[in-house]
Write a structure and sequence with these properties.
mainly alpha
Amino acid sequence: MLMARQGRHGATRRQPKGVAFDRWLDRVVTVAVLTALVVGLAAVAAHWLL
């Protein structure tokens, strides 16, 4: 059985027009995660010291 060649399909396929938005979203998520970590560590440190 021969199957016709088809374009790649999948959840991780990147569209050229969405690359800039993906980079922007990655940066926003990175900043949010780092902020949450810093605030969490500061809260733990304050709890231990006070």
